[in-house]
Specification:
Layout lengths: L1 E13 L2 E5 L20 H6 L11 E2 L10 E9 L9 E17 L2 E7 L5 H8 L2 H11 L8 H6 L1 E5 L5 E7 L2 H20 L4 H31 L7 H39 L5 H6 L4 H20 L5 H33 L12 H78 L1 E6 L2
Antiparallel strand pairs: 1-2, 1-4, 2-3, 5-6, 5-8, 5-9, 7-8
Helix pairs in contact: 3-5, 6-11, 7-11, 9-10, 9-11, 10-11
Protein name: Lipopolysaccharide biosynthesis protein
Keywords: Coiled coil
Organism: Thermoleptolyngbya oregonensis NK1-22
Length: about 450
């Protein structure tokens, strides 16, 4: 014999959450068809307990996608056999997939609902799957209802309706369990539907990561460039590098020319020295009282001139004074060479007239030897003065090139990261638009 009753539960919002608010308990007993001569036992009618006991309202957390004022129709049925089979309760609710397309105009947001194309057979398999049911199984433990996903699916039936909705039915021999499981399934399906499972959603998460990373990279590079530009050695970097490159090239030519002239003078001096039966002319010059000091002074002066010429903006007054001193020292050194030559000739050739304007061929070679010795000394002093300055200029040139390379690297990285940031922003906006047009949320619909 079968006896059925219908009970309606309404889902209402309370302070941003939803609770089941039951109506007054009402039990309408309907007589079922029975065989001829069969009567309803009075003892069964008096002894049967109500199909519904008002439970303590259970609070259900809910996300923003669930419709307000949704009604869940729960049909509770009982079947009693004369063999005293325990009654079976059934709780049902309807589920419908709704696609949301959002369009923002000024400060107002309008939402248009459209019916998406959904494969109901596939959807039913998803709703009965272990992955979807597992959150409900976990939440049911708070009500001391211990079910496995397989046990939950065994008593779960999902039937497609003609209007595209899905009717979710859950049967259990406990009225309390049937009601709690039903509303927990409703909440689980809503939560699952509220999660985004489009490919664009996963791409959006990656786009958010890329956007955050690109934003951080741009900020880091901008800070690094700002700090670099405050360094004293990075001021007017390009202009300094160009000027130094030009001056280094001039010094290179000057040093090369000096070294070539020095080598040629040394070769000529050595060749001439072997032809003369005299001691070294350089040794004779070094024995002069003032010659070594004047030569050292000239060497230092040429070093100061090279230092000034190596600067980006040489001091013209300082250079003018140095050039005058260089000219004076050169004249004094020439006088020392003439004195040394005369002393040597008078010592080696006493019969030579002191006022003779021309020298015999052999003595003319001696004069050339003194001149070449002095030239070797001058070129050697100049080479020793220029070489360290040229070496320092080369090192500074390398240093400026490294600074320029570092600055260029930072600027290139910043340009790349800015382009990545722009692309990430565009990708993020495109995916958000795509998701707003294609996203589907599942709602519990009124029966």
């Amino acid at each position: 014999m079968t006896q059925a009753a219908t009970l309606t539960l309404t889902l209402q919002p309370v302070a941003g959450r939803h609770v089941f608010v039951p109506p007054e308990p009402a039990l309408q007993v309907r007589r079922a068809a029975r065989a001829e001569g069969e009567s309803l036992s009075q003892q069964w009618v008096n002894g049967d307990r109500p199909l519904y006991h008002p439970p303590v309202p259970a609070v259900l957390p809910h996300r923003v996608g669930v419709a307000v004022g949704v009604a869940i129709a729960a049909t509770v049925g009982t079947t009693l056999y004369q063999s005293h089979t325990p009654p079976l309760y059934k709780s049902t609710f309807d589920l419908v997939p709704i696609a949301q397309r959002s369009q923002t105009i000024s400060t107002a947001t309008t939402t248009t609902e459209i019916r998406p194309e959904v494969d109901q057979a596939t959807l039913i398999q998803v709703l009965r799957s272990h992955q979807v049911l597992l959150p409900a199984v976990r939440d049911l433990r708070a009500y001391n209802i211990n079910l496995s996903p397989a046990a939950l699916a065994q008593n779960l039936e999902i039937v497609p309706l003609a209007d595209g909705r899905l009717e979710v039915r859950y049967r259990h021999r406990s009225e309390r369990v049937a009601q709690i499981v039903s509303r927990q399934l409703a909440q689980t399906y809503v939560d699952y539907g509220d999660r985004c499972r489009l490919d664009a959603c996963y791409a959006l998460e990656q786009a958010k990561t890329d956007l955050t990373e690109a934003t951080g990279q741009v900020a880091r590079l901008e800070q690094a460039i700002a700090q670099f530009q405050t360094r004293p050695d990075a001021q007017n970097l390009r202009h300094r590098a160009d000027t130094l490159t030009r001056r280094t090239a001039e010094f290179t030519r000057y040093l090369t020319q000096t070294e070539q002239e020095l080598k040629l003078a040394q070769e000529r001096y050595q060749m001439l020295q072997t032809q003369l039966p005299i001691t070294s002319a350089q040794s004779i010059l070094q024995q002069q009282t003032d010659y070594p000091a004047l030569l050292q002074d000239l060497h230092q002066t040429e070093g100061h001139i090279a230092t000034q010429l190596a600067q980006a903006q040489p001091d013209s007054q300082t250079l003018s004074a140095l050039y005058q001193r260089h000219q004076m020292l050169s004249g004094q050194l020439n006088q020392q060479v003439a004195i040394a030559l005369n002393q040597f000739l008078l010592t080696q050739f006493p019969d030579l007239a002191a006022d003779s304007e021309t020298l015999p061929p052999a003595l003319s070679q001696i004069e050339q030897a003194f001149g070449l010795a002095h030239q070797v000394n001058l070129l050697s002093a100049r080479q020793r003065a220029i070489a360290p300055i040229h070496q320092a200029m080369q090192a500074n040139k390398v240093r400026l090139a490294e600074l320029l390379q570092y600055q260029s690297k930072l600027e290139t990285q910043l340009a790349v990261q800015r382009r990545i940031l722009q692309e990430s922003q565009q990708q993020h906006a495109r995916l958000q638009q795509e998701i707003s047009e294609r996203r589907i949320v599942w709602r519990v619909a009124g029966a």
